[in-house]
Amino acid sequence: MAFIETPRGTVPTSGREPWDVIVAGGGVSGCMAAIASARMGARTLLIERYGFLGGSLSNAGVGPMMTFHAGKRQVVGGLAQELVERLMLLQASPGPIEDTTGYASSVTPFDPEALKFVLDEMACESGVEVLFHARLAQACCEGRRVASIRVAAKGGEQTLEARCFVDATGDGDLAWLSGAAVEQGRQEDGLCQPMTTNMRIGPVDIAELKAEIRRHPQNFNIRDLSALDRSPRLSVAGFYREFESAKAAGLLSTQREDVLLFETNQPGEMIANTTRVIHLNPVDPWELSKAEREGRRQAHELMRFFKTRCAGFEKAVLLSTGVQIGVRESRRIVGDWMLTQEDLLASRDFEDAVALGGYPIDIHNPDGAHTKTIRLKPGQYYRIPLRCLIARDRDNLLAAGRCISATHEACAAIRVSPIAMAVGQAAGTAAALSVRAGCDPRELDPAQVRAALLRQGAILCPEENDREGKNDDCQS
Q1: How far is CA 395 from the centre of its chain?
Q2: Residue 336: φ, ψ to 5°
Q3: What share of the chain is helix, strand, coil (3-state, %, to 5)?
Q4: How confident is the model over 409-442, as pLDDT tens digits?
Q5: 336 with 405: CB under 8 angstroms?
Q6: Pick from 83, 79, 33, 27: which is nearest to 56 by CA?
Q7: Which DSSP symbol is given to 359?
Q8: Cβ contacts of 451 within 8 Å, gap of 6 or more
Q9: Per-residue model confidence as pLDDT tens digits over 33-46
Q10: Fewer CB near the terminus (10 Å): N or C of the chain?
Q11: What global pTM score does this model have?
Q12: β-strands 199-202, 317-321: how paired?
């Protein structure tokens, strides 16, 4: 058995041969990457800093998943679809349903505890080995290749070697530690989209809330009131009048323009996505610490507002905030291609497209209130090329999730969980194929990667699903 030096003496390593693929980060994108890699036959390790999988969906209170669709056409399938179907079997999700705000083509509520369990099952069944409570500390390179990483885990630091690595940390930590080029925030000043402490609130009297919406529809963002009856769960933005009045009276300090609420898988329980923490760097430990405290302060301030000024919330309590604050944007790798707003809006046809998306460009103002939305045409979707997943400065490093190579504007669209899962599946598949072929990911034939993804049920040609009748309406 080998040993490594630590400040407290020697700690035994696993003594194993190098892994084929190591995925850093156990969010849903990293999970899909690891599962895809293992199912392709690669010996795969997934490292995660918490004691559970799911990333922001389980550690930051983020929900629902949005969106698997572009209009009525499904554009994300594969492992992400398998995850949702497993949750539905456990009655832990209603599946994709209508977004009653009309903002996204669909939303998918879920039970976060069931999500952790299902991801455990999928990883275990696929042969993924998971190392929990392991925080990435260092990346060691040999030339243009990442040779190994060091993680701080129980018992001391460990050195882990692999032939190919996937950075699914969300913050681009592995790429940054390896010395690969990264960008952060918007181009003019580096500011990132605001962070948010999500709040889980209940019980909410949904019937009374819907009645309030019908009494004062101009006070809410519900485009079609009949959607209140069609959708099994309520999504709503609004309480504009009450929100502005409370801010004017000095009762609220959050720099946001409205209250945003999503009913979870549990009827009468809602996620409030309303706090807004601005001008703090999510990858600076001191500023992130300040953001955590500020987010909690705003959450308790908002809870008083909900109970005293919002119809249906009179008996509600704050059930929980996330294990950590929600981060929309931080570092992004500089890849072989940088995805742009123009690529998305033009639905640019990439020959190496490995994932699709239909979520609009959704930029929460880094300076304060207001959210800039650039919508797609009805039913329009965009493509994400494999080149966006490959770090320009490294030969065996891919990225998955919101830290892929994209501009501030493009990241504001592709950062959401269904798209992140599709990207993760592509990254893991490419990593495994490169190990099998003994080549670098950029040397792969994109057609080979696309073919493997299609065999796994990924959606790359939605029109074929249209012809086969697979793109039915989302549930209502």
Answers
A1: 25
A2: -70, -20
A3: 35, 25, 40
A4: 999 999 999 999 999 999 999 999 999 999 999 9
A5: yes
A6: 27
A7: P
A8: none
A9: 999 999 999 999 99
A10: N
A11: 0.94
A12: antiparallel
Provide CB contacts within 8 A for 408, sequence distance 6+: 185, 186, 187, 329, 363
Residue 406's contacts (CB-CB under 8 Å, 6 or more residues apart) are 332, 338, 339, 340, 388, 414
Q: Maximum distance among all alpha carbons in the chain?
A: 71
Amino acid at 454: L
For residue 193, give the nearest of 381, 325, 335 by alpha carbon.
325
Task: Write the DSSP string, 93-136.
Answer: ---SB--TTSSSS-BB---HHHHHHHHHHHHHHHT-EEE-S-EE
Are 199 and 264 in contact by the 8 Å Cβ rule? The answer is no
Query: Which residues neighbour 331 within 8 Å (Cβ) at sequence distance 6 or greater?
Result: 171, 172, 173, 175, 176, 182, 183, 184, 283, 403
Give the Cα separation of 317 and 138 in Å (integer): 42
DSSP 190-250: -PPPPBB--EEEE---HHHHHHHHHH-GGGB--S-TTHHHH-SS-EEEE-HHHHHHHHHTT
Q: Is 346 left (phi over 0), alpha (psi -120 to 50) or beta?
A: alpha
Range 183-212 average pLDDT: 97
Residues in the chain: 476
> Among candidates 84, 24, 123, 21, which has minimal Cα distance to 401?
24
Amino acid identity for residue 255 in this structure: Q
Render the burial of 223-240: b for 16+ CB within 10 Å, e for the rest. eeeebbeebebbbbbbbb
